[in-house]
Amino acid sequence: MRLSERIIEKMLVICAAIALLGIAVIAVFITKEGWPIISKIGIKAFFLGKDWTPTKGVYGIFPMIIGSIYVTIGALAIGVPIGISCAIYLAEIASPKVSAIIKPGIELLAGIPSVIYGLYGMTVIVPIIRDLFGNQGFSVLAGSIVLGIMILPTIINISKDSIEAVPKEYKEGSLALGSSHWQAIIKVILPSARSGIISSIILGMARAVGETMAVIMITGNSTMIPESILSPVRTLTGNIGIEMGYASGEHQKALFATGIVLFIFIMCLNLLAKLIPKKAGA
Amino acid sequence: MVRGKVKLILCLIVVMTLIMTACSGQSDTVETEKKILINGSTSVQPLIEELASAYKEKHPGAIIDIQSGGSGVGIKSAIEGVVDIGMSSRELKSDEKMLKEFRIATDGIAVILNPENPINDLTIEQLKKIYTGEITNWKEVGGKDATITVVTREEGSGTRGAFTELIGVEEILNSSITQGSTGGVMTAVGSDENAIGYASYGSVKNSANLKIISIDGIPCDEENIYSGAYKISRPFLMVTKEEPTGIAKDFIDFILSDEGQQIVEDNNYLKTNR
Amino acid sequence: MNDIKIITSSRIKERVAFFLLWIFSIFTAIILVLIVSDIIIKGAPHISLDFLLEEPRKMGKEGGVFSVIVSTIYIVVLSIIFAAPIGVAASVYLAEYAKESTMLNIIRFGTEALAGIPSIIYGLFGYSFFVFFLDLKYSILSGALTLTLMILPTIIKTSEEAIKAVPKSYREGSLALGATKLQTIRKIIIPDAIPGILTGLILGIGRVVGESAAVLYTAGSSLGIPDSIFRPGRTLSVHLYTLASEGISIENTYATAVILIALVFIINFSANTLINRIFIARRR
């Protein structure tokens, strides 16, 4: 009995380590496929090169890095104010009835597959932008709007949890000192929940950076550095997604190399979210 | 009940290990000769799907797996012997000529505009300038004063490869809207009145929300593509590493037979002009 | 007098602020309604029993989605078969055995990081590892193995929380009666945590059903009913992506989207029901 228990315990450890192993294998394989091309054309030429012409062997992903950054900033500009407001409302103000309606809605928003967001963006949002601004419609703006909506659940859920985790005494103390509910929220509750709110933003950012299918369908995928929010744009994920099906040889390796950049991006964001102190108050 | 659940979980683990070991030792199943794997151009795929289903009706046991990885992948897979047949929507390059090639159909690449656009004809030279960014406004080619939305396919696509080669463009304007599929180009052009794009003639022929224009005064239609008068056309190829045998040979023979070529025509492609 | 003024002005401020917060919250709900209703209005009229039971013809331009549904079921079942035992075992270890240590922190970070990796990276990985390195080719199996890694964090996290929520007294009672730790886990803790574990599995299924980027490059996109797990197949999400981006058939695109949304509805609803049941059980 003792022996079998020990064996089973070891098996459990192995299962627990599989996730870690998974991350390691993913990192190894993406790097193995992509690194040779980066070292061949040079780190500087790869990261800062402004031309992406695989048929000629020119691989510069600078426009895509900028593209990812633009679209992500746009998504945050839309998603953060709405998301945090919604989180405050749900955690502090909403009656149980109202939150009973909105909460499942947010879960559903999180569960909708990204292709459906892409379909909606392509058939509704892109034409609206085209009519409003007289451009081609596929643009940084379209990508930002759709991604802004897609990161809402992440921001709302994590922010709401951290607001709800602020000890009741803080709020009561503030109210007892004569401040209004709104003042208590602004001056006491939000500062206490700050770290949770910041990590919600970082994780939302990670989701925006990593989204692929929806982005391909709505951003136009041009390989130039966008001039304005109305220009078409290609993100790192879009670069992989749109060309992966057709690429072969060196071209394919260059897409894996794009994957390395994306992987590093995401790992940095995860690490950042992890490093933010988790305590409420302070 | 609890015991049952633990047993269930243990069973699942066992099943999983079995499957894992099974796959490390798995090779192609016994019926290799009844099964073929095809990969390649997305432009050719719809046609092959049709041909395959007609073929399967005659030969119920046959299994034909069709993947679409693009012409480059199709050719490369055929060279490596990973697939039985590769599909290509462009001519083979000189270093790919060791493959056996079978021309199964001819396809024109139609230049498409939105029906709202008054332009009906462009010269190859104008087309080239539009796709390199030298001409950016429709009024420069006799249209209204509006910026041209250039729509193209992504790098690696056979249609893009054939198009750029045929009109002699070195490098397509990098600000153009890039779509990952024929349908993507059609949607983008169909919904934007200032857009220009290109796609397989067979795919766009019957689209009400698109306008096919003539090039150098020669209309893009069956007759002109077949005769070669319409310049922007390319073959659909099936390529194999060695002289095909078994079901692969049988399938290719079927495609080249009158019956197969009739299906090609029924699907708006032109039979091969070998 | 002055005091009253300050109070009223701050009350007005509060009103305005709360109103704005309310607007934003309602806005979130409205977005959802807009998207879902747009899809349903355009797609529902094209759904019929025939659509569900017919095989796609002409690349999905005509016919239904039967083979696509079959492939989806294949992939869902297979990834759950792989992920459930590993995920539950991992969560048992993390909740019951692991002691605070650097190793544990690393394992936890690995699990969290796995959850944050974009699906396109899973696609690249699955393509180079399962499809080529292990030579599983484009197959249901390659797709399912890739998705297993992807849903593992969800299952581990939800199950771990469920196991941790089992009252301490249960454990102590069982141990006091002379049961070993493993017996306690098997007979007391897991049965009590089952609803939570199931919730994790259901959420995992939701991710599998909705995933497209990771499946496209591992399970392939061929239509036709896969007759074994070594054959390629096309899931609903991949089918929807292909239909939408190829512009093959607007009716079938939206009809497929409606099916996908309906599945997400059902999955979310059952997960919620289970969660509620846990809370009710706890309160008793």
From TrEMBL, chain A:
State the UniProt keywords alphabetically: Cell membrane, Membrane, Phosphate transport, Transmembrane, Transmembrane helix, Transport
Please name one Pfam family that this protein belongs to.
BPD_transp_1
Q: Which family does it belong to?
A: Belongs to the binding-protein-dependent transport system permease family. CysTW subfamily.
Q: What does the entry give for GO biological process?
A: phosphate ion transmembrane transport
Q: Which PANTHER family match?
A: PHOSPHATE TRANSPORT SYSTEM PERMEASE PROTEIN PST, PHOSPHATE TRANSPORT SYSTEM PERMEASE PROTEIN PSTC
Please report the name of this protein according to its UniProt entry: Phosphate ABC transporter membrane protein 1, PhoT family
Highest taxon listed in the record's lineage: Bacteria
- Can you quote a single GO CC term? plasma membrane
Q: Which GO terms describe its molecular function?
A: phosphate transmembrane transporter activity
Q: What range(s) does the ABC transmembrane type-1 domain occupy?
A: 65-273
Q: Spell out where the chain crosses the membrane.
A: 12-30, 61-94, 106-126, 138-158, 197-218, 254-273
Q: Which membrane topology term applies here?
A: Multi-pass membrane protein
Record flagged with keyword Metal-binding: no
The record's PROSITE patterns line, in alphabetical order, gives: ABC_TM1
InterPro entries this protein is in?
MetI-like, MetI-like_sf, Phosphate_PstA, Phosphate_PstC, Phosphate_Transport_Permease
Keyword Transmembrane listed = yes
* Natural source organism: Lutispora thermophila DSM 19022
Where does the protein end up? Cell membrane
Automatic annotation (TrEMBL), chain B:
GO CC, one annotated term: plasma membrane
BP terms from Gene Ontology: phosphate ion transport
- Which keywords are on file for this protein? Cell membrane, Lipoprotein, Membrane, Palmitate, Phosphate transport, Signal, Transport
What is the membrane topology noted in the UniProt record heading this document? Lipid-anchor
Which InterPro entries does this one have?
PBP_domain, Phos-bd, Phosphate_ABC_transporter
Please state the protein's primary subcellular location.
membrane
Highest taxon, organism lineage: Bacteria
Q: Which residues form the signal peptide?
A: 1-27
PROSITE patterns the UniProt entry points to = PROKAR_LIPOPROTEIN (PS51257)
State the compartments where it is located.
Answer: Cell membrane
Query: The PBP domain covers which part of the protein?
Result: 34-259
Which Gene3D superfamilies is this protein grouped with? Periplasmic binding protein-like II (3.40.190.10)
| Single annotated GO MF | phosphate ion binding
Role: Part of the ABC transporter complex PstSACB involved in phosphate import. Involved in the system for phosphate transport across the cytoplasmic membrane.
Membership in a protein family: Belongs to the PstS family.
Q: How does it assemble?
A: The complex is composed of two ATP-binding proteins (PstB), two transmembrane proteins (PstC and PstA) and a solute-binding protein (PstS).
Q: Would you tell me the protein name for this molecule? A: Phosphate-binding protein
The organism encoding this protein is: Lutispora thermophila DSM 19022
TrEMBL record, chain C:
**CDD domains the UniProt entry points to:** TM_PBP2
Annotated ranges, domain ABC transmembrane type-1 = 69-271
List all membrane-crossing ranges: 20-44, 64-94, 106-130, 136-156, 188-209, 254-275
Q: Which UniProt keywords apply?
A: Cell membrane, Membrane, Transmembrane, Transmembrane helix, Transport
Report whether Cell inner membrane shows up as a keyword of the record. no
Where, per UniProt, does this protein localize?
A: Cell membrane
How is this protein named in the record? Phosphate transport system permease protein PstA
The record lists the lineage as: Bacteria, Bacillati, Bacillota, Clostridia, Lutisporales
